[in-house]
Specification:
Layout lengths: L1 H19 L2 E7 L2 E2 L3 E2 L3 H14 L3 E6 L3 H14 L5 E7 L2 E4 L2 E4 L11 H5 L1 E2 H11 L2 E7 L5 H9 L7 E2 L11 E5 L16 H9 L7 H15 L7 E4 L7
Parallel strand pairs: 1-4, 1-5, 5-9, 9-11
Antiparallel strand pairs: 2-3, 6-7, 6-10, 7-8, 11-12
């Protein structure tokens, strides 16, 4: 009985502390690509993740099917709200690619006809992380963005002898202290969509994120096991972390 009481007290204290924290999230889901075809899950993934994060005490800035101008507006709004944040979170579902070892996320109007287009028509992941690490004590980046990408293949064809610099999936990234980057699959691999409402990765995140008493590291272990099972081992979620404490 005493043990149960202590657990309940710990959960209540954790909940009160979480509510006192300033938690800001940017959630983007891009499905309706003009030059890369429609993706089945990202719009639903982002909508459902925004609702879950709101229930967990985050102030959520969200956007669906954003072109380049809209992505920039959302990122500026996010950056302004991050001042003094205890936890900053960024969730993205949609197309992404790596070029020369750097990761980029693609707005719905991206059209990569040449190497230079990457600079003007995509969102560098490092730019988002820079805004988060500048202001927040803890930064969490969740990327469901390793889908098979026809824009990456067409870009590689235009780069001729440099085509090997356009990699499959996303690249491994480094961060500052206090940041975690979670990928839907390991670097250099492609993740899967499903006929259902959500991708295997986001579905698993939604299933475990609201479990009481589970810190983020434990959540991500559960997510990895679920995705491995759902994809028969074809997709292995992966993280890079420099967190210095537990995050609930």
């Amino acid at each position: 009985m005493l043990r149960v009481s202590l657990v309940l007290v710990a959960l209540l204290l954790s909940s009160s502390f979480a509510q006192a924290e300033k938690r800001i999230a940017l959630v983007i889901g891009n499905s309706a690509y003009k030059y890369a075809g429609e993706l089945a899950n990202p719009r639903n993934d982002a909508s459902d993740m925004a609702a879950a994060l709101t229930s967990l005490g985050f102030e959520v800035i969200d956007g669906l099917d954003l072109d380049r101008a809209a992505v920039e507006r959302k990122l500026r709004e996010y950056a302004r709200k991050l001042e003094g944040a205890d936890v900053a979170l960024f969730f993205y579902a949609g197309h992404g690619l790596q070029v020369f070892g750097q990761n980029y996320l693609l707005p719905t109007d991206a059209r990569l006809s040449s190497e230079g287009d990457v600079d003007f028509e995509s969102l560098p992941v490092n730019l988002v992380i820079k805004q988060m690490e500048r202001e927040a004590k803890t930064s969490l980046v969740l990327l469901d963005a390793c889908r098979d990408n026809p824009l990456a293949r067409s870009l590689a064809r235009t780069m001729s002898t440099r085509s090997s610099q356009v990699g499959q999936g996303l690249a491994e990234a480094s961060t500052g202290v206090g940041t975690l980057i979670a990928y839907s699959t390991q670097p250099g691999y492609v993740s899967l969509d499903t006929p259902g409402r959500n991708s295997p990765y986001t579905q698993a995140l939604l299933r475990h994120a609201e479990a009481p008493g589970n810190d983020l590291s434990g959540v991500l272990v559960e997510v990895r096991n679920d995705v491995l099972k759902a994809t028969n081992g074809r997709q292995v979620p992966w993280e890079h972390t420099s967190l210095t404490g537990q995050v609930y």
